[in-house]
Amino acid sequence: MKYIIVGLGSFGSSLGIALTSQGHEVIGIDSNMQKVDAYKEVISHTICMSATDEYTVKGLPIIDTDIVIVAIGEDQGANVMATALFKTLKAKRLISRSINPLHETVLQAIGVDDIFHPEKESAMRWAKRLSLRYFVDSFELSENFSIVEINIPDALVGKAIGELKLEQKFNVKLLSTLVYEQYKDTFGRMQSKPSIQGLAMPEQILEDNDVLVVYGANKHINQFLRSVGVRVH
Predict the structure, then answer these.
(1) pTM above 0.70, yes or no
(2) pLDDT(98) > 80
């Protein structure tokens, strides 16, 4: 996948390094030449430019980029301007950093696809979330074990949980399933919130809108995903 990361501070640079190490193509942008030079060997591409200048931003391969992440944290005005500019230039998926509640409201009004809070969330967690097509979210219990939410792969739709034999085959446990329900936010746009289905039961039939809540070692979860045709790194 291809990413543009705007702002190479602590979070943006860590995310860029993680995604690059996973084999993705990353363009890291910052107006500080020292940061651009510092990460040029560990991020696919680094460019010194202002992300609020429409002329230079238009020169980026936005149409060929899967996700744009605005990680600017020091300058709230620059964050909003850059986010609005990439939205105007029709980024396929746009994610921006929230600095405070009012700022988050402004980002929602602009129409970003997702908002992150670096003070609460790690760059590695977001790297995992962004790099796996079926991945929704995760909670890392330790360095090697996680509880993850995964959009149901097509190969599992219509199957009973019991027949998957996840514990026997892969040493992972399906704890529950959930669905994301749609609702309108204060700006009239559709948003989603999770609805837990309860503990997973062997006789439960998996449906095409289910999200699987899986627990296990990261390597075992990846083995399970590969077995159903999901590409992981």
Answers:
(1) no
(2) yes
